[in-house]
Specification:
The complex is a heterodimer of chains A (378) and B (377).
Chain A: H1 3-32, H2 40-61, H3 68-96, H4 101-124, E1 138-139, H5 149-153, E2 155-156, H6 158-176, H7 178-188, H8 190-195, H9 200-227, H10 238-248, H11 253-272, H12 280-306, H13 314-333, H14 343-362
Chain B: H1 6-27, H2 45-48, E1 53-59, H3 67-82, E2 89-94, H4 100-109, E3 114-118, H5 123-132, E4 137-141, E5 158-163, H6 165-179, E6 184-189, H7 195-211, E7 216-221, H8 233-245, E8 250-254, H9 256-268, E9 272-277, H10 280-283, E10 291-296, H11 299-311, E11 318-322, H12 338-352
Parallel strand pairs in B: 1-2, 1-3, 3-4, 4-5, 5-11, 6-7, 6-8, 8-9, 9-10
Helix pairs in contact in B: 3-11, 6-7, 6-12, 8-9
Classes of the chains: A mainly alpha (378), B alpha/beta (377).
């Protein structure tokens, strides 16, 4: 087990987290302004299909004279617009007509499955449409040369960077700009926001539509950066995992990225451990140890900073740290028998990790107060 | 009030899936292509059709450019040869494994006489339906004819069409092992607990090791459940990219849309690929430039001939073994050296004569592979 193993693992985790983080940011924009969005999956699916159609048709029209990146960018744009349009539908139903937002989101999901399957059956498959390709990898100069960090963060295809920038931007904007304050006010207490002159419903319309645009990028990622072709139902529940990542990340974009990374990491681990070049038991104990130790360390720091009166749980906290370090030491020092870990267990990893982290240190996730309730002026 | 809605959001994925599958199961939706909608039940179709043929897909889509599509092509071929009208055949896409029986029953209710079910996972349901409906002919692709205790139980009205995926997988592995320059070859697969997929995997591993003992074979299964493991091209694409970073310069993809994702992603990176089930040179346009061959099974022709045998009274019943061979090399015909082709032919002959067991556990190969004895016909 060497650095190459870890670099490969973390780099893959970041790629796998990209559609999850983009989907979660779609949910973030909607829910922070008070509109539940369980239609992320559908918006991503529509984005995936239209990005494929957009890039392929544009490439056809131009006869392949322009570089393929241009076609891919057109595909991306089409995906953003169409998913934004679907989101607008969600906004229209839930704001204008005050439809129950869960129902509206479900409708979006069913509609997306119908539209995309129909288009695939009626147009994509009979015409044997062939994908244009995928975005090429862009290495960030200088930064990508940093050992370990460089290959993990700075040697990716462009949408991964787009995701990272958006996460940072949204985190800043939501908590430091006028737009962010208004959005949160509308999500927490729309009546108060209204009395100070914020147009509640307009804010919600804009945010939900922008959220759809982000989900569109997430869907486009699947086609334009990962697979290179639209396949029916290709989101396979990623929109719902994104929603979980959002809640898990306590309705912040950085939190959503971190929980997306957790899902991505365990999925990546499921792949890497199947390659058989490391001792699976040793790898699991080592990684588990690192995880527990980090958890313990963060916990210790939090406790120390808060100077809590109640020190009773201190042994537990320090114990976590010690157990983690002990697991790491065991993994590095002991020799392990070659154990074949069942593939199904690797498939379970994301969920086991989620439960552990959720019970361990995320604590209560409190949604925006006005979520799910249409706003009516008195 | 504010805390009422949130717990429900977690129920929605399930509700959504349920809604999706009931709609598909109940309405027998036909796509807008050349496939006609099923006939209304109040029209006396039975008098117009000598036979009505129904096709039930496994979880997945009818035009998956792979397994389901090849099976359904067999139905279309038989319809063509029998000269049946457009009202005499139909299909149902299964979107949830809980719908296997309802989907079969909806064909039974509409008076279909021949029902083709696609895929291993529907085996026990089909077998039981055959026992319950002795006058209906059932053809199950990839399905062993066994009772609940896995003892052989052939029925007169049910045929399980089985293929030696290990044979075509072995040939694919041999091709990969002979053509690799980096001495690393990769493969991405659907669910490990589906026997045909596991047989492809072990065959591929054994074949590559047989011709090239130094080769490293990196095989990765989708770890998810049956609901996603054949419909997740993104997983496969990123896995394929990982395998390529590890040095793989030949990629094999076996597992419906998941496998396709691996093939397309590998092809986009300039790696040669090997397809599965059908000749994917014809079904997957993205990979035409880099597909060396496909590990096929003769689904289409065998399904068609079994349907025809049901109409003329020669229906065999029990387990039938179909051929599993390599597809033509197409654009690689010139690139693949003659001695590689000769070697493949030699290996094929050795398998036929029983000299090689393509499914025998090799050093390091997967042991739980559901091997069936090689009975060539």
């Amino acid at each position: 087990m060497d650095t190459v193993f870890f670099v490969g693992l973390l780099s893959l985790a970041l790629i796998k987290a990209t559609p999850l983080a983009l989907g979660a940011m779609c949910g973030l924009l909607c829910e922070r302004s008070g509109v539940i969005n369980i239609g992320i999956e559908g918006m991503m699916l529509v984005g995936a299909m239209t990005s494929f159609l957009g890039s392929v048709i544009f490439n056809d029209i131009t006869g392949g004279t322009l570089p393929k990146t241009v076609s891919l960018l057109v595909g991306l744009l089409v995906a953003m617009l169409s998913a934004g349009f679907i989101a607008l539908l969600h906004a229209w139903l839930s704001i204008q007509y005050k439809v129950d937002q869960i129902i509206s989101g479900t409708v979006i999901n069913l509609l997306a499955v119908g539209i995309t399957n129909f288009t695939a059956n009626a147009y994509i498959d009979p015409n044997h449409l062939s994908g244009v390709g995928v975005f090429t990898e862009v290495e960030i100069p200088i930064l990508s040369q940093i050992p370990i960090i460089g290959p993990i963060l700075f040697q990716h295809q462009p949408l991964v960077y787009v995701m990272l920038i958006l996460v940072g931007f949204l985190q800043y904007a939501l908590f430091n700009t006028r737009w962010g304050l208004r959005t949160r006010a509308v999500g927490e207490h729309p009546r108060a926001a209204d009395t100070v002159g914020i147009n509640v419903n307009r804010t919600r319309y804009i945010n939900v539509t922008l959220g759809g645009v982000l989900a569109g990028i997430g869907g486009a990622f699947l086609v334009l950066e990962s697979v290179g072709r639209f396949q029916k139902l290709m989101t396979t529940g990623r929109g719902f995992i994104a929603l979980a990542a959002l809640i898990f990340g306590k309705w912040t974009s950085v939190g959503a990225l971190l929980s997306g990374l957790l899902f991505g990491f365990s999925e990546a681990l499921g792949v890497r451990l199947q390659l058989g070049d490391v001792n699976e038991l040793q790898a699991l104990i080592l990684l588990g140890g690192i995880g527990v130790a980090v958890l313990g360390a963060v916990w210790v720091i939090l406790k120390a900073r808060r100077r809590q009166e109640d020190k009773r749980s201190m042994p537990l906290v320090v114990g976590t740290l010690v157990v983690g370090l002990a697991m790491v030491a065991t993994a590095l020092l002991a020799t392990f028998p070659e154990v074949e870990i069942p593939i199904q267990f690797l498939g379970l990893l994301p969920y086991i990790l989620t439960i552990l982290v959720l019970t361990g240190f995320v604590g209560r996730a409190i949604p925006p107060a006005a979520i799910g309730r249409p706003y009516e002026k008195q | 009030m504010k805390k009422v809605y949130y717990p429900f959001t977690l129920l929605i994925p399930g509700a959504f899936l349920l809604a999706a599958c009931t709609s598909t199961a109940a309405t027998t939706e036909a796509p807008a292509t050349d496939v006609p909608a099923p006939a209304d039940t109040d029209v006396p179709v039975a008098e117009e059709c000598a036979f009505k043929i129904g096709f039930v897909t496994d979880v997945g889509q009818i035009n998956d450019q792979s397994f389901n599509e090849a099976g359904y092509a067999g139905v279309l071929l038989a319809v063509d040869q029998l000269g049946l009208g457009e009202d005499c055949f139909s299909f149902i896409e299964t979107s949830d494994s809980a719908d296997y029986l309802p989907n079969i029953e909806s064909f039974l209710d509409e008076g279909f006489g021949i029902i083709v079910t696609s895929g291993f996972a529907m085996g026990s349901t089909t077998h039981q339906a055959g026992i319950d409906n002795p006058n209906i002919f059932f053809i199950g692709t990839d399905q062993d004819q066994v009772d609940a205790d896995f003892n052989p139980e052939p029925l007169d009205n049910v045929v399980g069409l089985i293929f030696h995926e290990d044979v075509s997988g072995f040939l694919a592995g041999a091709l990969a092992g002979l053509m690799t320059e980096s001495n690393v070859v990769g493969g991405v697969y659907g669910c490990p607990f589906i026997p045909p997929v596991a047989r492809f995997e072990v065959g591929y591993y054994n074949g590559a090791k047989f011709v090239n003992p130094d080769v490293e074979v990196l095989n990765v299964y989708h770890p998810g459940s049956l609901d996603v493991c054949f419909t997740d091209p993104e997983f496969a694409a990123e896995t394929a990219a990982t395998l390529i970073i590890e040095g793989a310069d030949v990629m094999f993809g076996a597992g419906g849309l998941t496998g396709n994702g691996a093939l397309i992603a590998a092809c986009n990176q300039g790696v040669n690929v090997i397809g599965v089930d059908v000749d994917q040179y014809n079904t997957l346009p993205e990979v035409q430039a880099c597909i060396m061959s496909s590990a096929t099974k003769g689904l289409t022709s065998d399904v068609a001939s079994l349907i025809i045998s049901a109409t003329d009274g020669t229906f065999p019943g029990g387990t039938v073994f179909g051929p599993a061979v390599l597809a033509p090399f197409h654009s690689f015909d010139d690139t693949i050296p003659q001695d590689v082709k000769d070697r493949l032919q030699e290996i094929s002959d050795m398998i036929d004569s029983g000299e090689i067991d393509p499914c025998a556990p090799f050093e390091g190969s997967n042991e739980g592979t559901f091997c069936t004895p090689v009975v060539m016909n």
